[in-house]
Amino acid sequence: MYIIPNENYERTGESFSGSVKDKKGSYEITKVELASSYVEMEATGKYINEITNSESQNSITLKAIADIANKDKININVFTHLEHDRVLLLVKKGSSFAAAKKQAFAEVLTSLGIDPVSGNSEDMSLQADSVLLLASVLLQVGRLESDLKILLKTLNGIEAVKNGMATALENYATAKDNVQSSSSLGGSSSSITVTEGTFIDDRDSKTYKLVKIDSQTWMAENLNYDVPNNDDDVCYDNNPANCTKYGRLYDWATAMALPSKCNSTLSTSDADCAITTPYHKGICPTGWHIPSNADWNVLMKFVNPSCSDNSSCATAGTKLKATSGWNSGGNGQDTYGFSALPGGYGNSDGYFFGVGDGGEWWGASEVGSDVAYERFMYYSIEYVSYNVIDKDRLFSVRCVQD
Fold this sequence. Notes:
Layout: E1 2-4, E2 38-45, E3 48-49, E4 54-55, E5 60-67, H1 78-92, H2 97-111, H3 130-140, H4 145-155, H5 158-162, H6 166-173, E6 196-201, E7 206-213, E8 216-219, E9 233-234, H7 240-246, E10 249-250, H8 252-255, E11 288-289, H9 293-303, H10 316-320, E12 345-346, E13 352-353, E14 358-366, E15 371-378, E16 385-390, E17 400-401
Antiparallel strand pairs: 1-2, 2-5, 3-4, 6-7, 7-8, 9-10, 11-17, 12-13, 14-15, 15-16
């Protein structure tokens, strides 16, 4: 905690500190003598992800600025963090502290697409204020922990201040649409159920839909990453429109981000072709990986608990296929938002087959030097097929989060 004199709202250099006492974020700062009631506060630590209801692996830092006259408790949260720099700018332009706090808080809410509420940001808690819980979900949905950390720094930076927060935040306001209308926004984080979101691949700025299915988070569309200096990732029929719709097609070695020789070399016999465990990133974005047989098995057994590991899974195709796009009335129910599409496949000789009829997806598990496992869905069948296929075939890729 830093003291801010009334006259210039800049830190005096005097500070006080304390430690978080429990997983609820409770803290106490004792033996404090204040020359001013205006303080800046920072809290660094892990947090509970309101989407997964689990503790983060990494720490973040949140800020707050407040008038603590007649207060014995301050809650440092995403609202206090997002309004922080804006408050300082407004008071330096002549606004009273109270007016600056009110205006900055209102701007943050508006930028997130949330209707204004009464009260101060530092008086809100996740347990008592659903609007704070909603904002926390909006900032987390579809983002890795590392992305959230960068986002919070960006939105608290000088550019966000100059633009009155709105410009910097507008790209994130659409995340509200990813919180399903069936979600409860009551007084505890366990009442939140968010199943869909979006993710931005920072390599090429493409945005992907994602879906949380039980314990796993999958991309809800096929990867469309153009691997640099590689001719073994293509669009169906070499038509870019098919990449936009179905994603790109990759041979196994390209999908695994391995040398082309690995299409005919067993991973255990050549260090250049090694598959990492438990996650093999391949060409997926950081924090994501190519699904192994174990990953596919988890998905299949959730969709149909009677399915066995490493086998075709009855009715799973119907539940995972998209509700449109499949030939001859072969559309699925898309029960979980996986939205599988029939992107077809290609051969190493340049021919393409089956778009509209079927979709095939690589796995990171191999069988021999020139064959690996894949999953296959077809318009005329209800199950998801489990097959062994030549590594030089060109199939789709779905990434799953680490």
